[in-house]
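Subject: two folds for Thursday's group meeting

Dear M.,

Sorry for the delay on this. The cluster queue was jammed most of the week, so I only got both jobs back this morning. I'm pasting them in the order they finished. Each block is the input sequence followed by the predicted structure tokens. Could you check whether the formatting survives your parser before we put anything on slides? The first protein is the one we discussed after the seminar.
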Amino acid sequence: MRGAFITLEGTEGVGKTTCLDFVRESLSAADIPTVVTREPGGTELGEKIRNWILEGNHGELSAETETLLMFAARAFHLDEVIRPALAAGRWVICDRFSDATVAYQGGGRRADKGWIKSLRAAVHAGLEPDLTLLLDAPVEVGLHRIRARAPDHFERENRDFFARVRAAYLELARDEPHRIKVIDAAPSLTEVNSRVSAHVTAFLGRFCP
């Protein structure tokens, strides 16, 4: 039996890294073997693309260039990490996946979402996350949480950009409520973890009856 594919999504400052650690610990407690990875990244090539986009001195990238770089990294990531792990029965927990491209490049950068959908189908036809945890908070909350750190390529964007990203994420959640579970990330960590735990427990019941 193949492993489950779980992704975490959300705008900046919503606590994805903390949530990922909590999900990993929950699955470990259930004796489920996991592979934790991220996008862009997860492979040597993916990390180079990630670093170049986030920290590189490349000036302004077009929405289309950004999108293609994301999918190039994703295709290699799928071949080298995600598909082999799933085939071996391990569960994959990934910090961002194609929903992020729809939200950031499609929503934030206004790249054509139909084009992104076609790239998505070409790069990972037949494979979508089994569960996506979308951490959601008002834009102001996320930006306040990251105010003390040096901003990267995306974090330098303005409020309107992140409002479009958030709206695109929530549109995806409305379209796929069976897969994407929206979690209010504004309350305390204890409350957020409780909601995450409820969704993970329900998913375990479905995937491992």
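Second protein, same layout:
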Amino acid sequence: MRTRFKICCMGSVEEAALAVAVGADAVGLVGAMPSGPGPIPDELAREIAASVPPPVATFLLTSRTRARDIADHVAYCGVTTVQVVQHIEPAEAEELARLLPPSVRRVQVLHVEGPAAVELAAAYRPFVHAFLLDSGRPSLAVPELGGTGRVHDWAVSRELVRSAGRPVFLAGGLKAENAAEAIRTVRPYGLDVCSGVRTEGRLDPAKLEGFAAAVRG
């Protein structure tokens, strides 16, 4: 099975078009966050989502924690997938599954701060379509919820891929130079990248093409 890849932190319709042109399976649109790179206004997220042709998926990264608020965010932005970046209550994940239409996929982020992430996955499994493993630290005074550029413990990620019971995307410090190693070590369903394909915050066509080639290779 080929490894999918998602290019996150889209800043414009033009950036999304670049990602689509190199064969990205999905693009990420970052909503309001307490910290980290890439947040854009919901109006722009909606515009970008409308510009992306199927079958490329559009992921809305939301830091909202209540099911109704998340569902409203998704409906406004018109995306195909929601990526919940906080460790929300499992009851909210269950309610979100009820509120969203069946066509919208639900991805729960697990911030891999240690082996406890494996147990956390079990609580969400019945209510999500996939997991995304990232290197955030949601327990900080100002939570880190992604875009850190940091690699986490891939041994824990590998165990999550084995036990999660759902497709798993791997994020955190990925770039062309370590994409192949990440795939060999973790065996994820897909890779997710933001800072690793950017130069001074802008999507870099050369880095983007290098990452796509590394994943395909």
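Two things I noticed about the second structure. Strands lie at 4-7, 26-30, 57-62, 81-84, 105-111, 130-134, 168-170, 190-193, 198-199, 202-203. The chain has one domain: 4-216.

Cheers,
T.
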